Amino acid sequence: MNNRSSNKKNSGFTLIEMIVTITIVAIFASIAVPSFSNLIKKNRITTSTNEFISSLVLARSEALKRSRDVTVCASDDQTSCSGTEFSKGWIVYADCNGDGSLTAASVDCNGDGVLEETEIVKVHNGLEGVSISNGAADITFKFSGRLGGVASNTAFNIRHKSGTTVMKKVVINRVGRIRAETP
Fold first, then answer.
1. What pLDDT score does 81 carry?
2. Which of 13, 15, 21, 48 has the fewest CB within 10 Å, making it most exposed?
3. How many Å separate Cα 92 from the centre of its chain?
4. Around 5, how many Cα atoms within 13 Å sit in the side-chain half-sphere?
5. Long-range CB contacts (< 8 A, 24+ apart) of 163-171?
6. What mean pLDDT, rounded, does the chain reach?
7. Is the model's pTM score more than 0.85?
8. How far apart are the first and last CA of the chain?
9. Alpha-carbon distance 105 to 149, whole Å?
10. Domains and CATH numbers, the chain
């Protein structure tokens, strides 16, 4: 007589094998999650740095193109230069009337006798989870592309909101050259 159970192969996992597999997966996950979190934090800092630098480069090129001062100012509400820290947003504007401030009224920016609606070149909303600061509420590029109103390099510290360590630094030298550094 043939015994059915002796011919049949066992298939599947035992309880012990499953517990060992789940334990190994849990160990790998506990190692990977903090690394992934740091990767996200570093990418957020890099993206924010690149966005800030692109606005500074835009301001410098607009100053050269328009032959007038162009300013990047911190803005809490994206309509006025009311901010103290760039992480809440900023405005790039051409100072058409030369008064050193953003003019809300229409002005003749290009000298053609027609009033333009605004001096604003670009508005950037805030950055989530990132702090950009240097103590100044604005930075101005002169018509020559040089940095206005400073005697030496200007540096902006970029850090994650959850920490105090500076992750990136954006440095602008007196001639207007912009670079990112990792301290």
1. 85
2. 15
3. 15
4. 0
5. 167/42, 167/45, 168/45, 168/46, 168/49, 170/49, 170/52, 170/53, 170/56, 170/132
6. 83
7. no
8. 81
9. 25
10. 14-181 (3.55.40.10)
